Amino acid sequence: EYISMDAVGNQFKITAKNGETNARNYNKIFLIDVNAHIFLENSESILIAGDFANYDKSTIETFFKDNVKINYLNHKVESEKLYLSFEDKLAKINDNVVYKNEDTKMYADNIEIDFKTKNTKISMNNNEKVLIKSTY
After folding, report:
1. How far apart are CA 131 and CA 126, in angstroms?
2. Which of 11, 74, 89, 13 is nearest to 49 (CA)?
3. pLDDT of residue 29
4. What SS3 class is residue 106?
């Protein structure tokens, strides 16, 4: 279990069933069956799970892969990859992205979230259109 906190007061807690350090850099850890919890100051917490992750203890940079699931309030996102950087205040979600909430389901290739500005970019590869299904 690793817990990190940044200067603003955000907290990141990551746990895994198994972990393996890099022989050349002990800050880099390969994790198996990973769960992470992000506590953003003045916001609800975010839960992340994935089959694998590459985690850097010194930068808190984390690359989740395979069967990634993100839960935030009533928002759920599934994908194959999630790159998370607290240093850059950025999250990139890629590959078979499915977003769901109570009345919307969206399919995309990429979601990029800027934590600083709260801006979100949703896109497809090859100029395809994002598919959104809503029920009312």
Report:
1. 14
2. 13
3. 92
4. strand
Query: Of 55, 56, 77, 72, whose CA–CA distance to 64 is shortest?
Result: 55
Alpha-carbon torsion angle 22, 25, 30, 35, nearest 10: 150
In single-letter form, the type of residue at position 103 comes to: D
Q: Which two tokens stand for residue 107?
A: 């399919």
User: Mind listing the pLDDT tens digit for each residue in 3-14?
Assistant: 665 556 678 889
> Mapping DSSP to helix (H, G, I), strand (E, B) and coil, where does residue 127 land?
helix
User: Which residue is associated with the tokens 């399919």?
Assistant: 107
**Please, are residues 83 and 65 in contact by the beta-carbon 8 Å criterion?**
no
Confidence category of residue 131, pLDDT binned at 50, 70, 90: confident
Q: What single DSSP character describes residue 130?
A: P
53, 69 in Cβ contact below 8 A? no
Give the separation between CA 126 and CA 97, rounded to whole angstroms: 15
User: Looking up tokens 């992750």, which residue turns up?
Assistant: 53
Residues making up the chain, counted from first to last? 136
DSSP string computed for 22-53 = -SS-TTEEEEEEEEEEEE-TTS-EEEEEEEEE
